């Protein structure tokens, strides 16, 4: 079986270094908010071209804390509306709700799966204060158009970059996840926020630590969400290889795009620039479940990202009557093929051959 994502194989080259890092953290005796986290925050901020990086417990917390940080600064108020793509993973929407804000769903473009900038303006009301841009599957959204809309309407832009580590031009405040399956993944949960806003960074460093800048003195109603020393240490070992890993993903994507020739399978759009890191390689087909079964029968593991759109989830029963035809079409047709830095040429050959035979 060709695994969809072989995490054991991805992490194998680091095994000795991981063990040494564990030994170092144990010997140091400092497990939370220490030198490993500081080192990673500095390195990841530099990597992203940002002034600040705030390590947090996971990518979901990163989003929630950004919203709460802006509320503390008076740039958002509870009840404000936040525009968000209708086809995103549910975490994006849950984070908006967790901060007592109101999500407003906007359809994506069928070609890119990212939010359609041409549909944003019509959803803006007097209560709209922010746009949560999701760079889904690793492809940069149309930031030039979105930035223009935001400036024209005086809106904040927050980026959900959980799937787009290493994509260029992520200038505004962004949330990252280091969940093990991400392009830059640790061995547990982890996340970070990058920003150029010094006032926001100051609030975020405090909010993540119970709202406390000085121990036992609390400025805000904060949370406990900190990137621990061990996970930060593992990320410090993996970060230098992220660009090379992304290039391997792009190389596989190039092969898929040029060599998969089957009219039943719709390939993803890519202009071959660095605006895509292919965290996922997502195809579409009318009979998705049949294609997935066919690939499984031929020892190729695939995953559906995602089978049920947010507005059709039981958790959001008040939205179940809404109609987002493009979003629904995407969720009914998408299938993610294996793509990772450890996929071999032989495996890629086989995947292409089997898909062309479908």
The end-to-end distance, rounded to whole angstroms, is: 18 Å
Count of helix runs: 12
- Strand proportion: 5-15%
Q: What CATH architecture of the largest domain do you see?
A: 3-Layer(aba) Sandwich
CATH superfamily of the largest domain: Type I PLP-dependent aspartate aminotransferase-like (Major domain)
**What profile does the largest beta sheet have?**
7 strands, mixed
What level of helicity do the residues show?
Answer: 25-40%
Report the principal-axis shape.
Answer: globular
Walk me through the structure.
By secondary structure, the protein is α/β, with parallel strands linked by helices. Helix content is 38%, strand content 14%. The protein folds into 2 domains: 227 residues, Type I PLP-dependent aspartate aminotransferase-like (Major domain) (Aspartate Aminotransferase, domain 2, 3-Layer(aba) Sandwich), CATH 3.40.640.10; 118 residues, Alpha-Beta Complex (Aspartate Aminotransferase, domain 1), CATH 3.90.1150.10. A 7-stranded mixed β-sheet has the order 1-7-6-5-4-2-3, with helices on both faces. A two-stranded antiparallel ribbon has the order 8-9. α4 packs parallel to α5 and α4 packs across α7.
């Amino acid at each position: 079986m060709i695994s969809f994502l072989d995490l054991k194989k991805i992490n194998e080259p680091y095994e000795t270094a991981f063990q040494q890092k564990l030994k170092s953290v144990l010997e140091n005796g400092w497990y939370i908010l220490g030198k490993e986290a500081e080192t990673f925050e500095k390195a990841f901020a530099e990597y992203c071209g940002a002034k600040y990086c705030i390590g947090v417990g996971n990518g979901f917390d990163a989003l929630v804390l950004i919203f709460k940080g802006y509320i503390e600064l008076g740039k958002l108020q509870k009840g404000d509306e936040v525009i968000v793509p209708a086809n995103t993973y549910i975490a994006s929407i849950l984070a908006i709700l967790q901060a007592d804000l109101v999500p407003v769903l906007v359809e994506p473009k069928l070609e890119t799966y990212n939010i359609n900038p041409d549909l944003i303006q019509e959803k803006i009301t007097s209560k709209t204060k922010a746009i949560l841009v999701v760079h889904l599957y690793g492809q940069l959204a149309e930031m030039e158009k979105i930035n223009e809309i935001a400036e024209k309407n005086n809106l904040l832009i927050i980026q959900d970059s959980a799937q787009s580590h290493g994509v260029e031009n992520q200038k505004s405040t962004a949330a990252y996840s280091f969940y093990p399956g991400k392009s830059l993944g640790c061995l547990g949960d982890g996340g970070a926020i990058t920003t150029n806003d010094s006032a926001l960074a100051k609030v975020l460093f405090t909010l993540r630590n119970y709202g406390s800048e000085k121990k036992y003195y609390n400025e805000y109603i904060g949370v406990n969400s900190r990137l621990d020393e061990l996970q930060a240490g593992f990320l410090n070992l993996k970060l230098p290889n992220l660009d090379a890993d992304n290039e391997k993903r792009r190389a596989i994507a190039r092969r898929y795009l040029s060599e998969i020739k089957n009219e039943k399978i719709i390939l993803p759009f890519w202009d071959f620039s660095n605006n895509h890191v292919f965290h996922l390689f997502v195809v579409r087909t009318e009979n998705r479940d049949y294609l997935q079964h066919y690939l499984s029968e031929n020892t190729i593991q695939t995953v559906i990202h995602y089978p049920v759109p947010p507005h059709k989830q039981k958790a959001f029963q008040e939205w179940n009557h809404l109609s987002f035809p493009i979003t629904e079409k995407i969720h009914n047709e998408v299938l993610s093929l294996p793509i990772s830095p450890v996929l071999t040429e032989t495996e890629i050959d086989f995947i292409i051959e089997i898909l062309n035979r479908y």
